[in-house]
Structures are given as C-alpha cells and as structure tokens.
Amino acid sequence: xxxxAMLCSLLLxxxxxxxxxxxxxxxxxxxxxxxxxxLVWFFPxxxxxxxxxxxxxxxxxxxxxxxxxxxxxxxxxxxxxYRAWNLFSWNYGRRFAWFSENEEYAAGLLPLYWYxxxxxxxxxxxxxxxxxxxxxxxxxxxxxxxxxxxxxGGYYGPPLLGPRIAIDLHPVEIADFVAGLLTVGxxxxxxxxxxxx
Length: 197
Description:
Layout: H1 2-17, H2 35-40, H3 42-52, E1 54-70, E2 75-91, E3 95-97, E4 100-110, E5 112-121, E6 127-131, H4 140-143, E7 152-156, E8 160-169, H5 171-182
Antiparallel strand pairs: 1-2, 1-7, 1-8, 2-3, 2-4, 4-5, 5-6, 7-8
C-alpha cells in the first residue's frame, strides 16, 4: 500500500511542478484567452498536446555509447559521445528540425550527470547547452525550453557509425493533455496552448 502511494506521488510530481519551459515572466502583460478562443482552439491545442507526449529524433552519424534515463535525476549508467546529422526531429518544446547537426557528450550514473550539446543548422539554430553535475530546474537547458528534466527515454544506435534513434516520453505533457482535455483548455500546465502562449 505504501509502495503504491509512493509510486503514485512520484508519477504525479511532474504534473505538480509543471513544465520547466513555462516561466511566469514570459506571461506578464498578456491577456488570458477568452472562452470563445479556448473553444475555437480546443481541438488544435489538444492535438498539439498529444504530439508533445513523445519526442523523436532520427539521425545518422558516428559515435559511441548509449543514453538512458528515468528523469534527469536517475540515469542508468550513461556514457556517450556522438556527432550526428539529424534527418528528422520533433523535440520537446515543439521544435521541428531537419538536416541539422548535433554534437553531444554525456556521462552519468544515478543523479550525477554531465552533459554538453551543440546544435547547428535548419530548425535548430546555433545553440549550446551543458548541465552538471546534478540537474537543477534553473539550468539553462530547462529555462530555454530545450530540455525536459522529467523525460523518460534515451537514444540507441549501433556503435561507431550508423543511424541513431532517440525517443523520449514526457510525463508532464501527458498531464498537460489530460488537464486540457478535462477542463476544455482552462488548465494549461505547460502554457503552450494557442492563442495564449
């Protein structure tokens, strides 16, 4: 019974904390959407919320290692160095990128984690992020909406040269979809509904 309650509270934690990419400072001075706007945008918003649940990246390149995580505070042993050219990616924060270049280095075990990543090219812009040694919600990668600290997933591919597939599941986005569905868009955990976002 206690184990079930602890598991339930752990699964609800992302929904309680919310998206790291929705800082209040961005919303100052904006008018909330009207009831009519919420109704008009209800189906497009729920569709986008559903797409946000999973991020997918298909790339080709060279590197070594594998990355697996259950949130950014629980890394299954991770050690990787990878340089890839993204053929397609739908990333956290509704970023679509194609034919961009990504160079990434990561090492981690349980809560300790070191990460450095650079993005260049179409749809990605030129950006650099790093986080170490323990993830904090104030880290640059979260403040900019580039990363999701609550994500579960990783990337997989053959060593040295070949394709790589990265898949992440975003529990916060599941909570955002369900909350928006049940409240007709009046609760927007990730603050990404149109036209208010």
